[in-house]
TrEMBL record:
<protein>
    <submittedName>
        <fullName>Uncharacterized conserved protein YbjT, contains NAD(P)-binding and DUF2867 domains</fullName>
    </submittedName>
</protein>
<dbReference type="Pfam" id="PF13460">
    <property type="entry name" value="NAD_binding_10"/>
</dbReference>
<dbReference type="InterPro" id="IPR036291">
    <property type="entry name" value="NAD(P)-bd_dom_sf"/>
</dbReference>
<feature type="domain" description="NAD(P)-binding">
    <location>
        <begin position="8"/>
        <end position="185"/>
    </location>
</feature>
<dbReference type="InterPro" id="IPR016040">
    <property type="entry name" value="NAD(P)-bd_dom"/>
</dbReference>
Length: 213
């Protein structure tokens, strides 16, 4: 069973990732949390935790970890500390402890931040984090969804390296499923793809970015 560190486990999407991992036979989630009360909440559910803050040293969080899902986000409140440098710190920690794969939750538009009027700073932070991961030497998958919503997951998406029409949204539950399935060694190894709500089953959509090792 692989131990999966979830960075951003207390967030809305991160919590769904934890639940998704908890329902899998081959993955064991480890929730990274900032506060002891958050630790207790997960421990009551039988979920392992590690106490750390992205604004501080996080070198220890990847010790004994097989793979990582980075789903942290500051909602624009701490772009430098969380979305940019925080992500980079996790990449460094993953390299130090030889993590097998890191799945990064990014955003549609992160490849061209300058084209956005309102989200340029946010997308630039995501871009910097993505580039840092891509150049790290780690195995990775970078997932770039459209606007996240809290609607009921459909289990169906549109997926492409670069979607023709980038406007739209996607339920957080579907994003969580994609992130967890992207942990597989054969899915989008050292690749980036975009996703939106769509008509194709998640499994079949991910088959299009499956790579033979």
């Amino acid at each position: 069973m692989e131990k999966i560190l979830v960075v951003g486990a207390t967030g809305t999407t991160g919590n769904k990732v934890i639940n998704e991992l908890n329902n899998q036979d081959n993955f064991e989630p480890v929730a990274m949390v900032r506060k002891e009360e958050q630790q207790l909440k997960f421990q009551k559910q039988g979920i392992q935790t590690v106490l750390a803050d992205l604004s501080e040293d996080v070198t220890h969080v990847t010790k004994g970890i097989d793979k990582v899902i980075f789903a942290a986000g500051s909602k624009g409140k701490a772009l430098e500390t969380v979305d940019r440098k925080g992500a980079m710190k996790i990449v460094d920690a993953s390299k130090k402890h030889k993590v097998h794969k890191l799945v990064m939750l990014s955003s549609i538009g992160a490849d061209a931040p300058q084209q956005s009027d309102k989200l340029q700073d946010y997308l630039q932070a995501k871009n910097d984090a993505d580039e840092y991961l891509a150049n790290s030497g780690l195995d990775f998958t970078i997932v770039r969804p459209g606007t996240l919503n809290d609607e009921v997951p459909t289990g169906k998406i549109r997926l492409a390296t670069s979607l023709d029409n980038k406007k739209g949204s996607i339920p957080r539950g579907d994003v969580a499923k994609v992130l967890v399935q992207s942990l597989k060694d054969t899915i989008a190894r050292r690749e980036v793809f975009e996703i939106l709500n769509g008509e194709q089953q998640i499994d079949k959509a991910l088959d299009t970015v499956a790579s033979i090792r």
